[in-house]
Amino acid sequence: MAAKSVYDSDATDEYALESKNAKKKDEKVKQITEYTANTKLGEKKDVTCELPSEYSPKYVESAWYEFWEKEGLFKPEYNHDLSKPNPKGTYIVAIPPPNSTGTLHLGHALATSIDDTISRYHRMKGKTVLFKPGCDHAGIETQVVVEKKLMREQNKSRYDVGREGFIEEVWKWKNEKGHVIYDHFRKMGAAVDWDCAVFTMNPKMMRAVTEAFVVLHERGVIYRSKRLVNWSCTLRSAISDI
């Protein structure tokens, strides 16, 4: 009499059960529940409608950010007279400005979430809080993106359009795409004061950077010297070590 294989029954039944469950899972199409109540932009969210059967981030998060922003909840003067010192203290943090070359990535999400959590904590402790947003011009990265765009759309290089023409194209691209990053911060619910948003190429910021370099040079902290650098033959510019 032939020995019965252990795979003839138990394993076969287990495989059949897994296949059946997998098929059911594939057949089940999850419906994303969206918030459809008639809440005007900036008004307090109407939560009297029926709740979804399972957690839906889009349902839960919709409408609240616009309400928070309209109420000025993220401004340092909220519930505080800035002309008088706050006995509970102050807390100020700036978002390390992401490059204006596209969209946020996972690293931005992690860092911003941590800063946002800490700033909200201090705000709940009664401190005067400023969470400051901003965006960086990104220098070489922006140049590369705009150069590719010029070549793709106009079949021209930056030398064809000239220095002034290229700078004009860079500003045009920044004005068209710069809002994307801020929209992403809003989607994340970042508790920042948008009235304080800055761009690193704004005249005020450029003066501050120039002053910082001059002061640091006078103190001997930074200096000019001959060193090996990473030189890009394509960009015809020095690039950073990272």
What is the CATH architecture annotation of the domain at 66-138 and 179-224?
Answer: 3-Layer(aba) Sandwich
Mean pLDDT: 84
Helix vs. strand class: mainly alpha
Q: Which blocks of ≥5 consecutive residues have pLDDT under 50?
A: none
Provide the gyration radius in Å: 27 Å
CATH H-level superfamily of the domain at 66-138 and 179-224: HUPs
Kindly state the percentage of residues in helix: 40-55%
Name of the CATH first level of the domain at 66-138 and 179-224: Alpha Beta
| Cα end-to-end separation | 71 Å
Assembly state of the chains shown: single chain
The coarse overall form would be extended
Question: With helices defined by DSSP (H or I, 4 residues minimum), what is the helix count?
Answer: 7
The total strand number stands at: 6
Query: Major sheet: size, sense and barrel closure?
Result: 2 strands, parallel
Beta strand %: 5-15%
CATH T-level fold name of the domain at 66-138 and 179-224: Rossmann fold
Question: SSE order in H/E notation?
Answer: HHHEHEEHHEHEE
What order do the strands of the largest sheet run in, or round the barrel if closed?
1-2
